[in-house]
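Re: weekly structure request thread

Next one in the queue (166 aa):
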Amino acid sequence: MKRIIIYSLLVIALFLTSCSSSKKVTSNVKQYDVETMGVGNDGTYLIRVTDYFRTTDEMVYLDGLKKDAVHCVIYQGIPAGNGSIKQPALMTSDTKVEGNEQALNNFFEQKLYLNYINSVVNSSKKITKMKDSKDYKISVVISVNKDDLRKYLIDNNIIKPLDFLF
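Done, posted below.
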């Protein structure tokens, strides 16, 4: 009898956990592709960013791709390729200052990330209409000023300076 009660409680517990909400935090989860295009000047990353948009309006998709590029530098880092090594994200579990998520959300909402885009290579623009969809796959090469971005994040107490390790 004791076994049946324990078994029943386990089944109920499994059922309740499988039915619970699976709301995910989306502040640092975005869907885009990044490819390293090479090494830029000191302190810059030259990357190809690809994302999907419903429009081919250049103002809309360029702003989105610039945001994706800065988001990638902060949260994901830059993959290896084209003669350069993998670059780590500026914000990691070690460098993150807890409690300043709102400051970073404001950074993206107020479009302050545009200050850290050096250039957009318009000749690299690729627009592809997706089959059976209203979406367009758009990619462009963007240069991001990593050093100034790191300085901004440190000055605004969003990430820790590198000397915290020593």
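Residues 14-28 have pLDDT under 50 and may be disordered. The longest helix spans residues 58-75.
Next request, please.
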